[in-house]
Every structure is written in C-alpha cells, then in structure tokens.
Amino acid sequence: MTTATSELREAETVRLVDYLAGELARAGVTHLFGVGGANIEDLYDAVHRGGAVRGVVAKHEFSAVTMADGYARVTRRLGVVAATSGGGAMNLVPGLAEAYASRVPVLALVGQPPTGQEGHGAFQDSSGKAGSFDAREVFAPVSRFCARVDDADSLTELLPLAVAAAQADPRGPAVLLLPKDVQQARIQVPARDVAPAPGGPATASAARLDTVAVSAVSDALRGAGRVLVIAGEGVAVDDAREELAELAQCLGAWVAVTPDAKDVFDNHDPRFAGVAGVMGHANVEDCLRRADLCLLAGTRLPLLARGGLDRALAATDVVCLGPEPPFVAGLSLGGNLRDALRAVTVRLPSRPQPCPPHTGPLPTPMPGPHFRARERTVPHAQAVAAVEAALPQDAHVFVDAGNTGASAVHLLPAPRHGRFVVAVGMGGMGYTFGAGIGAALATGRRTYVLAGDGAFFMHGMEVHTAVEYGAPVTFVIFNNNAHAMCALREEFLQGGVRSDDLFTRTDLAAGVAAAFPSLEATGAVDAAQLRTALLRSNAGDGPAFVAVACDPREIPPFLPFQSFTEVTKSKEGSDERGVVHVG
C-alpha cells in the first residue's frame, strides 16, 4: 500500500481528501479523531488508504474534539477532529468552545451536503440558503478562522491559513467546512517547498519583544524585594518551564501556579507556594500580601485563578509576561513567553537567591460530611493520597470538573514529567474522557483521568474507545452518586438539597466490567484497594477502570464553600475575604 505522500508525488491530480490527508501527515499530525458519517466518509477513506495518519473513531463528537484537544496539549502539535454534517457538526461546538477559551490549537474538518443540494431541502443543509442556518455563523464565534471550501482548488490556500490561525497567538480552533462533492473532486497538486507545512510544535516565529517594555519589567523586578510568581498554562504551551525556574532562582521568588498549570513548576520545590485561586492554598494569599511585586507568567489571571486574591493584588505591583494582557492592572510585556522570560532573566543578577520562608501548600482543613453516609465511603483526601502514591512521574493527569476536580487540584501534586490538565476554559463535565484518550494515544504514556460519576454519565462511554484502541488510560471515578457540587450549592445557597441532584446508588465498576469483559474494572472500598488497583493498572499496557465510593455531602476545598464553614479564617476574618461566586 502506498502512502498518501508518495501518491501525491506520483499523480498529477488527486482527490481533495487524499491531498488533505497527505498534508496533515506532512505537517506532523499522527492522529485524526472524529465520528464518521456520509458527508465525511471520503476523508476517513483517504486517511485509511494513506496510512500515515491514524483515524480514531469516538462515540460522540464532543469527545472527539476533546481527544484532539488533549492530543494538542501534551504534544504541542495541532490536534485534528473530523465530523459529518448536521447533528455531528453541531456536537463539535462545546468542545471547540473549550479549545477556544483555553487557547488550544485544533483544526476541525466538517463535512457538508453536496453543493448542488444547497437550498433545495437537502438533509442536514447548513448553507444558509432557503431558510437553512449558516454553519459559518455557528462556528465563527468559537474559532479563530472559519471558512467554507466552495471549490476544490481553494483548499490549497485555505488549509495553510486555517493551520496558521490555529497556531498563532491567541491559539484556538480553526474550522473548514467541506461539501461532499468538493471532497471528492480532483485537484492539481501544488508545487511544494522542501520544508514541511506548518503544524508541528511552535512553528510560528516569535514576535519581536518590545525593548522598552523589557527594560521596564526588568527594572521593576530588580527593584522588588520579595516577589511572588504566579505561573499559568502558557508556560507549558511555550515549553518555558526551565526559563521559569531560572527566573525564580534569580529573583529568590515564591512560585504559585494557576489551577490549570500545576505541572509548570516542580510541586516539591521549596519555592512552590501552591495553587492560586478558588481551588488553591491559603499560603499563596499570604505570600502575595508579603510580596513587593507579583509576576504573572503565562496567565491572564482569570477569576478561578485569582478568587480570594483581588484585594491583595490591588495592593501589590503586578507585572505580566505573555502574549495577552492580564485581567488585572499592571505592567505588561507581550510576545512569546519563553523569549520574554529569557530577556528579563539576563538582565537580573545571575547568582541564585534563596526565597523567604513560607508555609508551603498546606491543605485547607475542611469539615467532613455532616451526617453518616448510608454506605462505606472514602474521603476525597484519602482517595487523592492513594492516587498520588501510585501515580507514575511521567504520567499525564486530566482532571474533570466538580468536587473531584477541586480536591485533585488542591491535594494532588503534579507528576514531574507529565501534564496536569484541567479544562477551565468552559469547565465542561466529561471533558477528560476524550482528552485523556487523545493524550494517551499521542504519547503512549500512562494517562490518568480523574472524574466524578456525573461526568462519567455524560461522556464516560468513551471508555469503549479506550478499549477499542488499547489506550493506556486509567479512569478513576469518584462515585458519590450525585451532582455533588450542585447539591452543596443547593444546601448552602438555596435553603436545602433537592432530590434532583442525588442519584440512586450505581455500581459503576460492575456495570463497566459487564459491558467490557476485557477491561480491568475494579470497585475500591477503601484507599488501600484503590492504590493496589492503580498500581496494577500501571503495570498493564491498556486501559483500566477504578471506581471509589465517596460521600456527596463532603465539602471540597473550594473557596466559595469556605464562607459557609467555620474552619478556615484569614487573619482579617471571613468578612474581609468575602464570598467568591463561581458559576
């Protein structure tokens, strides 16, 4: 079987989809995620025939996007998703919205009915003609670039534009709408440069840094005594971990991280202050109050990352390094983060400085459930400790929304050589199931998915995809038989828990084991069983599933809930901290 690349070299004309598959492979794309259908089947045929890109069929288009998203986050390459027209296309929207909000480069290839049927009552028509809605107007708000390929020859111009838009700052999705007849049309293969097309890691050249801003930021840092660095996911995106660590040493700074960036700084380093924001540690606020200057690196500091810190930030000078301006007032240096960190560091004293003493990221004490559970349950802290004990240091971790996410972000140190991903752009439940699979297939490394039962019921059947493709993913389900964060909000904010968000008990491990006999599925009744099951999964080369019973009334380390407890008070008292509203 010839590859798509060799076919393109030998033929004067090829099908558009064969050209497209070849260009994806040439750009370094190794996997295409999606769900098939009549108006995208030609692309899947081309991918299959070409052999250079692996087609992965998901159970739902949302998860297909998150697979491409997870792939992009761990590889720093372009993630690609393909879907058919109609409902398949519309199911892409929430996943693309997450990639848009979190600045993840994803290319969506979306099938459309044949052009000759537009405006004539075609099934799944979204051309905008004859009363149909226009797919371009749907995708435009959640993409950096959206275009319809009206004729085959235009793809040679539109594809590079789409890829460049996805990878330029601010990164995000690009969408190409592909009518079926255009996919099948033959095109002349354009002359090629020797260099590969864009699509690999960080191919775009960095914008030149503003020398005035570099000098101003450097002067501010040299003049500061105590510095708190708050680092965000931009450090991972620009592969700037070493530069961040060097700058922190030169400054003698404390380093905190945003909830979606636990992996950008060694969580066991003496300088590590903890996680900032609503899932974070009180030590970060203490360090910020003691600091003369706060340096934001790779984060705009959105609400989830600055919750509880606004007053301290208002009383502290702020400097921001990164391509986008921050949400707080301060001095900004735009451009490539890695270049900015280097430019500033060379203007500082080169001798490493010790950081001032601090308490470190001590867990916030939270009360246990306020009544006895009807069954044996494992406290979140014990469950997370079991995960920490088993977690390989080169593993990737994907943490879902809800009480599970808050506990993991607060309590679980990031693996030293893997990603720790929390999708805080849209915070969609169930994101992790697809994203973890995409990351595992991209890298071949053990990947942990930490999610609650609510997230599992939304998109947990992607476990089937992991089984089908042998993805090395360990799914850890914290099963409290509830939408527990909703139930707690009802109790604290609305005068009592409604039964809607409390579920009848479900034995998820038994159900999954029955559905997938080849899958190692375990129901853990205590932390020791959980740790044993996780260690066993590490030794395998395919997926594993572990469910642990938790209590829905356990209050997570989540700042909006702390105002309703008597456990955590700042020196100024709870009135000074105020209630932080999220969601």
Could you characterize what this model shows?
- The chain is of the alpha/beta class and 583 residues long.
- The chain has 26 helices and 20 strands.
- It has a 6-stranded parallel beta sheet, with helices on both faces.
- It starts with a helix and ends in a 6-residue tail after the last helix.
Quick structural summary:
The protein is of the alpha/beta class and 583 residues long.
Radius of gyration over all CA atoms, rounded: 25 Å
Helix content: 25-40%
What coarse outline follows from CA principal-axis ratios?
Answer: globular
Mean pLDDT value: 91
Main sheet properties: 6 strands, parallel
Would you tell me the structural class of the helices and strands? alpha/beta
Q: Please count the beta strands (DSSP E, at least 2 residues each).
A: 20
Percent strand equals 15-25%
Reading side by side through the largest sheet, how are the strands ordered?
3-2-4-5-7-6
Helices, by number, come to 26
| Distance N to C terminus | 53 Å
What low-confidence regions span 5 or more consecutive residues with pLDDT below 50? 200-206, 567-577
